[in-house]
Specification:
Number of domains: 1
Strand content: under 5%
Largest sheet: none
Oligomer: single chain
Number of strands: 0
Number of helices: 4
Shape: elongated
Radius of gyration: 19 Å
C-alpha cells in the first residue's frame, strides 16, 4: 500500500509514551504504533455502528423522513433515533 505522511504534534509526555511503546519491541517505529491505534479505532467504531444498526433493526419501527436523511445522512439519523433524540 502506498504511504503518505501526516505530521502530528504531541505533548512531551505523549511523545515519551509512544517512544516507550516502540522501545518495548512490539512496534518498530512510532508510525507503526500510530497506524495500529488507528486500525483498532476504526474496527471499534465499525463494530459500534454495527451494534447500533442491529439494535435499531430489533427495536420498534421508526419513521425516517427522506428530507431528514438527505440533510443529515442515514447513519446520523439512525444514531439519533437509537439514542432517543
Amino acid at each position: 500500500m502506498p504511504m503518505t505522511s501526516l505530521n502530528i504534534s504531541l505533548p512531551e509526555a505523549l511523545k515519551e509514551y509512544v517512544e516507550g511503546q516502540v522501545a518495548s519491541g512490539d512496534w518498530g517505529t512510532p508510525s507503526e504504533y500510530v497506524r495500529e491505534l488507528i486500525r483498532r479505532d476504526k474496527e471499534r467504531r465499525l463494530g459500534d455502528l454495527e451494534n447500533e444498526l442491529v439494535a435499531a433493526a430489533k427495536g420498534r419501527k421508526i419513521e425516517l423522513p427522506v428530507a431528514e436523511i438527505r440533510r443529515k445522512g442515514l447513519v446520523a439519523v439512525l444514531r439519533e433515533r437509537t439514542r432517543g433524540r
